[in-house]
From TrEMBL:
Protein name: ATP-binding protein
Positions of the UniProt region annotated as Disordered: 1-21
Gene3D superfamilies, sorted: P-loop containing nucleotide triphosphate hydrolases (3.40.50.300)
MF terms in GO: ATP binding
Domain Cytochrome c, residue spans: 173-324
SUPFAM superfamilies documented for this protein: P-loop containing nucleoside triphosphate hydrolases
Cited InterPro entries: AAA_16, Cyt_c-like_dom, P-loop_NTPase
PROSITE patterns per UniProt: CYTC
Stored Pfam families: AAA_16
Amino acid sequence: MDPVRNPYAPGAGQRPPELAGRDRELADFDVVLERVARGRPERSMVLTGLRGVGKTVLLNALRSAAIGRLWGTGKIEARPDQSLRRPIAGALHMAVRELAPRHRDPERVEAFLGVLKAFALRDAEVSPAKRGRASARAWDPGIDVPAARGRADSGDIEIDLTELLTDAASVATDVGSGIALFLDEMQDLGPADVSALCGACHELSQSGAPLIVVGAGLPHLPAVLSASKSYSERLFRYVRIDRLDRAAADRALRAPAAAEDVEFDEDALKVLYELSDGYPYFVQAYGKVAWDAAPASPITADDVRVAAPEAEAELAVGFFGSRYERATPAERDYMRAMAALGQASDDGPVPTAEVAEHLGRKPSSLSPARDGLIKKGLIFAGERGSVAFTVPHFGRFLRSQPS
């Protein structure tokens, strides 16, 4: 069939043509937005799940829903080597610019931008006597107003962030709207930034301010937040994003094809689900190659089987292989041991003690490899004393590779 008309999109964070299986999450978020608009108390939200389940896609869809209600929005992707201060300043700047045209008092908006600039320029590692010109030369936040003094510029990120978000929420209140900040890869925030964000969200929730944070991250993110602030277990609404059930996976394949007057037969859909295991990224990857391999509609199970090796080869290089190549030799040995031990449990959590036993090493000697893999986002510490892959089917991929 015509590859130009191929509707499937196996890209990182790229919205599929049919966002199947996420209707409940979208509906629940609409309720959150409406409750906040009416001054009702509501918690910020955290999405968790493995890589490839569509967290970023859903995060973007939720942002679109907020924009549709004329909220101010901004998005951040956390990085382990970057402080939260600058990216959150940029995100808030964008959010307030969206609200500013509807504000009746331009001076009120400018006053907030002055606080925002002070927050952005305040580096906790620079003494008060040395900040100012030196910081401005190092980085310019692009805010064309003088930096304010005495608000959100103490150098304590938790105090400053709380003051900044409170002031931003006040601007949103003035125009009868709200602000939503979307934070991807949230598990990569540093400990101080996690603590500050939790503290600021706690303060906002108590005051009923119209500002919410929607985070997304790996399955261990709730544990990261809880370790920072014990009340985070009650502060956020946690939503686990998992693989699609059979009906949703079929819909993700059928709906885009139907728009192009193409159909799948039932056996083809069955085989596609067995191959993809319902993971949205894999659904798109196998759907794309099945379309290209099929000579005509309907797409059959034989078409899928012929095309499957191409999808597997692409996944082996781009989805699995690129991650494997980031690991050191010691880290690769650790992952191979996990894969060998996880075969019987469908690559579920593996006790770290068993990994050490499999490698004939003391658990303490493997801590650097384990910690390195966690920092690289390749594994996560699930239940106490166990680890698991962040990428679905990664153990299966490792077992298929030559030693």
